[in-house]
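Thread: "does anyone have the structure for this chain?"

Original post by V.I.:
We have the sequence but no experimental structure in hand. Need at least a predicted one for the grant figures.
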Amino acid sequence: MADLKSLRKRIGSVKNTQKITRAMKMVAAARLNRAQQRIVSMRPYAVRIGSVLGEVVNAANAAIEGGSDGGGELDHPLLARRPEKTALFLVITGDRGLSGAYNSSVNKVAERSWRERAEAGVGVKLSVVGRKGREYLRRRKAPVTQTFEGVWENLGPEQAKRIAHDILKPFLAGEVDAIYLVYSEFKSAMTQKVVFEPLFPLTQAPHDASPKNEGHALSSFSFEPSKAALLERLVPMYVEITILRALYESRASFFGAQMTAMDSATKNASELIEKLTLKYNRARQAAITTEIMEIIGGAEALKG
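Reply from O.Q.:
Generated one for you, C-alpha cells below.
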C-alpha cells in the first residue's frame, strides 16, 4: 500500500505541474501574439533606416574619394573606421528560463565569438542585457564590463536609447573599435535564429540593401542642410532603432521558445501521467489479488 500511496502522490504532482505548464503556454502565446505584431511592424522600418544610412555613407565616401567634398573623412565620429583591436559585444538574453534553448543558444554564440577573438589577439568587452546571459558569462570568467537591468520590465524606445548611449561611449572614446550585436532573431513560434551582426563600424549598407539602388550613382547625392547635420540626426537614429529592433526580436523569440517548451512539457506530462496511472492500476490489481488469496487461504485453514 505504501507503493500505491507514493504513486498517487506522484500522479497528483505531475498533474499539478501540467496545469502550470499549460497555463504558462497560454500566457506565452498571448504575449507572443503582441510581440510578433510589434516586430512585424518594426522590422521593415529598421531595415530601411539602415539601408538609407548605408546609402548616405557610400555617397559621402564617393564624394570624398572624388575630391568633391574637399577631402577628409566623414563628418561623424561614429563613422570612424579603425583597425579592430578591441571589440564590444552587446549580448541580449532573457531574465527568465523555461524557454528551451533560447538563452543557451545566444550565450554559446557569444562565448564562442569571444574566445575566437581572444585567440586572435583581439580584446573583447561584453555588455549584457538579461540575467541569464550575465550569469552564464560571469561563470565562465568572461570580460563582462556592463549589465543592463530592468530592460524587459519596461521595454520600449527609452530603453533602446539608454543602451545605445552607454555602449557608444567606449566607441567614441576610442576604447573599442567595433560593436557587435548578439541576439535571437524571431522567425516563427517554432524557429528562432541567433544573429551575430556588426553595429559599428558602418562601412556599407547594413542588413539587406535593396537591389533597386545598385545602379544609382551614389556620388550624385546632395546634402541639405548639410552632410554633417544629416549624419548627426541619422546615425543616432540608426543605432537606437537597430538596438530596439534587436530587443523586440529577442522578446518575440523568448515567448515563442517558451510557448514551444511549455507545449512540449505539457505533452510529456500527459504521457507520464498515463504511464504512472497504468503502473498504479497494475499495482492496485496485484494488491487486491494478494488480499483475495490471503482471505481464501485463511478460510481454507479454518475449515481444516
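V.I.: this helps a lot. Residues 204-219 have pLDDT under 50 and may be disordered.
O.Q.: and Residues 189 and 256 are 4 Å apart (CA to CA).
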